[in-house]
From TrEMBL:
Residues 1-26 are annotated as: Disordered. GO terms for biological process: response to oxidative stress. Signal peptide: none annotated. Residues 14-24 have a biased composition (Pro residues). The lineage of its organism: Bacteria, Bacillati, Actinomycetota, Actinomycetes, Micromonosporales. InterPro entries: KH_dom-like_a/b, OHR, OsmC/Ohr_fam, OsmC/Ohrsf. Belongs to the OsmC/Ohr family. Residues 1-13 have a biased composition (Low complexity). This is Osmotically inducible protein C. Transmembrane segments: none annotated.
Amino acid sequence: MSHPAASSSVPAPVHVPAPVPAPGPDRIAYTAEAHVTGGRDGRAATSDGVLDLRLALPKSLGGSGDGANPEQLLAIGWAACFESVLVMLARKGGLDASGVAIDARVHLVKQDDGGFALAAELDVTLPVLDAGAAAGLVREAHRFCPYSKATRGNVPVLFMANGAAVSAGDV
């Protein structure tokens, strides 16, 4: 007996990578803890009390927009981490990263299935460095930044260095 042809409404198989083993306690350098209630229209607080935020859906998604949202928090965290890594690498390489600034954008992108995905832009200004040195430093920071590692292969990212697009290369 023959099987009917697969319908186009049947989802394609999803590739699930092998799980990465959890690091042992001796490998963990820091753990951030947060408690969230109410999802995107709720409250988020860190266990140490440093952050206690009202969360709100952005106006563009039909919300009030009068609170922080996860995309803003990711943009802040990624940019701060990326800049720290970039400055460390510049020092190690004998480069001057003074005046560095990063404008980060995290996009919530509508998908055909009705869901959303993320995309990002990191626009790095390194006023003391020429275009080639700035681009190389941004590429290197992308290799080492923990946020870049966590999103690599999952989140498309546009990198800019001193106003010019940077190819992430094979990192």
